[in-house]
Amino acid sequence: MDSKSKLRPGDRAILVSAQLPGVSEAELNSSLDELQRLAKTLGLQVTNRLTQPRPNTNAPAVLGAGKLIELAALTGGPGVIPAGASKRQTGSTPKKDESVSAVEIALNIDEVDPDKRTGVVLFDHDLTPAQIRNLEGATSAEVLDRTSVILSIFQRHARTREARLQVEIARLTYMAPRLRESGAGQDRQRGGIGGKGAGESALELDRRRVRDRIAELRRDLVAAQKESDLRRTRRTVRDTVALVGYTNAGKSSLMRGLTDSQVLVKNQLFATLDTTVRQLSPPTKPQVLVSDTVGFIKKLPHDLVASFRSTLAEARDAALLLNVVDVSDPAWRNHLEVTESVLGELKAGDVPSLLLLNKIDRLEAGDLDAVMEEHPDAVPLSAHRPEDVAMLHERITSFFEREMVEAELQVAYSDGHLVNRIHESCRVLVEEHEEFGTRLKIRANPVLIEKLVSEGAKLLR
Predict the structure, then answer these.
(1) Within 114-273, where are the H helices?
(2) Are 392 and 369 spatial neighbours (Cβ–Cβ below 8 Å)?
């Protein structure tokens, strides 16, 4: 994805993947199914899939010459890498026996109705800048790799200022090495104030501008994240639950059910990018806050993980993680593995968690029993069944009940605001007004009790 991307909803797209050694047919199809869902989220219409067994993805156009012609026949391209394009790629050199005649190419291209040719090619791999240029020259189509597809979705779905900053940093970091020299600017040199000197080309200037822009965005992001960190710090003394899991696992639907809120729910990948925090409903004493986080995905770009540090920190700082898995998806085991891996990267692997097997209403009879044998401690449910959501509500409150202890506090009458805070954040069992202040018997988390004492309450016992 570069700054000149012209993707439009309704554009026809072809999915392409190299089947690498050790990758089964089922794994290949599962990955392509996910890429198709990503394409659908962008509004693209997938018309074909092309796969080819390859030893690696290092070839100049990833595919062999014959498969490249087959792809070009669907897009209207010449089917060969244009003369003068960079064909060098680590670990691979073009083979002479892969060459084909222009007549063969023309015959293949003519097989497709010009009105049905495809203008977008999506690769289920990360591509180098040289590979993208080679493929676009050979196919006459816009070529996007998996990372650029995910970045495009994030860019469209970002709502808050912090999310937009995060996505823009990741996008520019990805785009910087892929900037292309325009034909008119290849020989342009520039010196003087602000320039590198007599040898700085237009491309180098563009790359420097991108680096400067990234630095500026990062400064803005630090300021925005300080506000988010402050809000999260204020919530650390409260009971907090974070919904985590693979994208489109049903986290937002559960969020709606647990908090009776109108959060966005869409049957598409990465519908939620901005962390939403709501109170558990029906309300409990003390309050339990539930946060809905950005979904994970296989091969989530590293720059996105880094940029979304503040958003994903909700998982690390929560008291309880609800790990949501779409158990109706054939690849749910891989999804669970990806989620656990990302949580490990975020240093959230040791946070207490509850595995939720969502969308059981879509399972065939008997399939749930087999899944429960694998994960006997998991909670099977459907986010659309009120009785299942009520059961989960009870599990959440029971979890925090185990952590609560009883204590007696005395609050001076001059600190009346602290009494209000205790009522909001603790379960008040007894309240008495005595000579020296208000005496309260409460049940609460020990950390919260210590916080209240530090703010002026006197611990009696």
Answers:
(1) 129-139, 146-157, 161-175, 202-235, 251-259
(2) no
Q: Is the residue at 344 inside a domain?
A: yes
Asked if residue 380 and residue 418 are part of one domain, the reply reads no
User: Within this chain, do residues 394 and 444 fall inside the same structural domain, yes or no?
Assistant: no
Q: Of 236, 202, 147, which Cα lies nearest the Cα of 155?
A: 147
Give the max Cα distance, the chain.
101
Compute CA 158 distance to the chain's CA centroid, rounded to the nearest angstrom. 11
pLDDT digits (tens, 9 = 90+) for 352-388: 999 999 999 999 878 899 999 999 999 999 999 999 9
Please answer whether residues 215 and 4 qualify as being in contact, where contact means their C-beta atoms are separated by less than 8 angstroms: no
The CATH number of the domain where 39 resides is what?
3.40.50.11060
pTM for this model (two decimals):
0.73
For the chain, what is the radius of gyration of the CA atoms?
28
pLDDT band for position 302 (50/70/90)?
Answer: low
Whether residue 289 sits in one domain with residue 350: yes
Question: 7 lies in a domain?
Answer: no
CA distance 408 to 139: 75
Which tokens belong to 110? 């003519």
Residue 389 and residue 241 share a domain: yes
- Do the Cβ atoms of 60 and 124 come closer than 8 Å? no
